[in-house]
Amino acid sequence: MDLLSLFKEYGDKQEMLSKLKEDQSLRGYNNSELHIIAAIGDLEQPNVTSLAEHMGMTRGGICKNIKKLAEAGLISSYQRDGNVKNIYYRLTDTGKTIYEKHAAAHEAWLVRDMAFVEGFSQKQLDQVKDFMKRYIKHIDQRIEESENDVEGR
Predict the structure, then answer these.
(1) Mean pLDDT for the chain?
(2) In this structure, are residues 62 and 52 in contact, taking their beta carbons and an 8 Å threshold?
(3) Helix, strand, coil % over all residues of the chain, rounded to 5
């Protein structure tokens, strides 16, 4: 139980530090929204399906966030020639600004925390990585089970 409490404390503190350090223009957007903006900026011809797969989110979750981002003027939709079925997304100029500021914040986070990580041996880091990969797989399985339960209703 102590380990799981530490995970929660880590998450809470990481969120607090992020809010203290983040650019004012990023305030008002949640993590999902910022990461969808990042994915739209990174992926070639992003649509709901590719965003859901890339982010490990449900299509419904992506659609809900897409609507908010479009209403905020951060993204726009388009269709490719001859394909009226699929809707794709791109960043607006405002969305590109948010994308760049979010990328800069991620880079600063990596630089800041890399100094801490470098204080551990490769063996210690490998053990932590193995644990985290296994824990993430466990959580992914619980997500999949929950999604199947929701779809089965």
Answers:
(1) 88
(2) yes
(3) 75, 5, 20
Angle at Cα 35 formed by Cα 128 and Cα 116, nearest 5°? 35
d(CA 34, CA 40): 10
- Report, as an integer, the average pLDDT of 40-48: 96
Angle between helices 31-42 and 59-71 in degrees, nearest 10: 90
- Asked which of 25-39, 83-97, 112-126 is least confident by mean pLDDT, the reply is 25-39
- What would the two tokens of residue 2 be? 């102590």
- Which pTM value belongs to this model? 0.73
Written in H, E and C, the secondary structure of 48-110 is HHHHHHHHCCCHHHHHHHHHHHHHCCCEEEECCCCCCCCCEEEECHHHHHHHHHHHHHHHHHH
